[in-house]
Amino acid sequence: MNAEALIQRLWYGPAWHSVLLWPLSWLFGLTVAVRRVLYDIGVLPVYRVQVPVVVVGNVTVGGTGKTPLAAWLARELGLRGLAVGVVLRGYGGRAAGPRVVQDTDDAREVGDEALVHARRGPHVVVIGADRVAAARLAAQRGAAVIVCDDGLQHLRLARDFDIAAVDGSRGLGNGRLLPAGPLREPARRLERVNAVVLTRRVGADRSRPVMLHEPFLAEARLELGPAVNLRSGERRALEAFRAVPCHAVAGIGNPRAFFSALRSAGIAPAEHPLADHAALDLTSLPFPAGSTVLMTEKDAVKCAANAGDDWWYVELVVAFERAVARDLVDLVLIAHLATLDRTRLREALAGTFAGRRTHALPDRLPPPPSSWATAYRKIAEELGLAPDMATGHRDAAALLDPVLGGGNPS
Hints:
Blueprint: H1 3-11, H2 22-40, E1 53-57, H3 66-79, E2 84-88, E3 99-101, H4 107-110, H5 112-120, E4 124-127, H6 131-140, E5 145-149, E6 161-167, E7 195-201, E8 216-229, E9 235-236, E10 246-250, H7 255-264, E11 270-273, E12 292-295, H8 297-303, E13 311-319, H9 322-338, H10 342-349, H11 370-382, H12 393-404
Parallel strand pairs: 1-5, 1-6, 2-4, 2-5, 6-7, 7-8, 10-11, 10-12, 12-13
Antiparallel strand pairs: 3-4, 8-9, 8-13
Helix pairs in contact: 5-8, 9-11, 9-12
């Protein structure tokens, strides 16, 4: 059993398996708590950039679907007429940043996830170990809103809305903090974010419950789309590989999820898991030359220049129920509008509520946290409306559609 498999067994098995590491977890937890208090009381500074910031992160180590979710949100905000900047660390790359990423860059310099974002475009993508400096550069390049891929624990950067992605099948593992478990922060951190998205993968193991009391809770399906040839760009339905002997490569946080999804699609590949952000060693491939190879998009950007003729990456599609997608995007946009000053609010929203009735929150959703209610009240006050005129998701949609072009999440 290799080190990676052992860690997964410890983190996602019974908690007592990692009992020898509990003292280190307590020390790690104390460090996390002290650090947060220092930010909360102002000993450590928090910096706000000139545009709204939305953070998409996680409380566990890797494999939650965070990057596909961030890409989905960036796309949806772009459809609503906003110029979007995507900011991320650039893990796996040599560049420290801040640096604007082009779709022609080398993944060895900027990191695989940054290159995936840049190729999906048309957003400005900026990498940087200093997320504050990276966000400022994105704003200077024209971003009206910033989506930060990862960074839930990067407390130096002020945020207006944060979303935590949780793997719906693995949950929070054994519930222990690093190194005894997969948690970067205590589980109660999920009740301080604005929204939690449970990601469900086709072919994944049975779901683990995540108990929450406060934030908006949504579920997203991570589905495999068509395969794209790395050399020609040809797109082919995944079903075409069912009768083809092939190999599968995955250098992501949870390679098993990719392999399980392929098996659910009727494909039985030879599996080649890699560490997260790792690249194929092109001088010593684990499969014969000329093989049919399926891989993730993160793997593809690292080996496209030297790909074989029959190498394909499989698109990952983020799918919400339409109403849930609309609610989530509306809440992010409300947070964006709440950052505007009085003059810009009046210019953007004057007359929007004319003739509209108040709509109640849907019964299937929990009431919004106080931070959202504050945002709604602020907008109502700026417009001279009664406070109860801006208290529902449907009102949020009615307010935003005329202003931002009425694009609908898909």
